[in-house]
Amino acid sequence: MNDMQNEQAGRRGGPKTNKGKLAASRNSLRHGLTSKKLIPELLRKDQVAGIQASLDQEFKPAGTTEQLLVAEMARHAAMMELGEKAEGAVLRHGARELSGMILSTSSEPGDDADEREDAVLASAVSTEALDKFNRYRRGHEKAFYAALNKLREIQHDRMTRQSQEKTEQKDNSANLFETEAACEKHLAKRFSRSNWRCPRCLGAQGSWLQRQKRWECNGCHRQVGLRHGTVMERSQLALTAWFRAIQEVVHNPDITSLQLAEVLGIQRRGTVTRMINRITNAMQADGANTQLASLNTITKAEST
């Protein structure tokens, strides 16, 4: 009796040898996939890393929470592949053939890794084991899609918030130039800059004629209006319409004449089309800042 108790006490704590660990792994595979030895042997880290790299490229996670969800999805996807492979092993081989394969497979180093893996997976030789593999795979599948839905929810909220912030920034920019006086003040600033030169004699000295709203050169007395050198020159449209059109086209180069007409409240689409053409041509020109009254740099800075 004492000898039997001592023998049982010596067996406590789990298997000690490689052969015993392999047997415990096979037994756990048959009865619920609970062995700690199963995952390190069958699910290598490079498999999870490969799946995670693909998911990173597809979903482009931003922030720690999204990265953790993608990593969780990668682990569940890898375990789903493991479950599918296990089901395939059971379906490909009959019970007798699998039993022979298991019995003939050793745990010595140098054995073919894929053959050992097949042998361990193939130990589930019954319909009951196949049902367990199905439940195992479905569990990871549910967890995968739960993480996926949470990731999509977070990304949708983030993109919605970013879109709202951009819209608010654009509205704030439009509010800066919602009156003709504000637009005129912005255009008049360039005449006081150090790089401003008279278009006729290149003189830098001049004076601002407030009543006429024109700049006059002290040298040749050439007078220059507010719209000189811009896409707004020789146009009868209000400055507020031009300023808003420039901001809209710079922010969205693919905007249509119909869309811009609705924003500006202009019924003549031909007029809006000519405005878009002027603005897009100016955006590609060397003197874009001058032609667009520096509104292109303001809009781009607010969009980033």
From TrEMBL:
Q: Where is this region: Disordered?
A: 1-26
Q: What is this protein called?
A: Transposase zinc-ribbon domain-containing protein
Source organism of this protein record: Blastopirellula marina
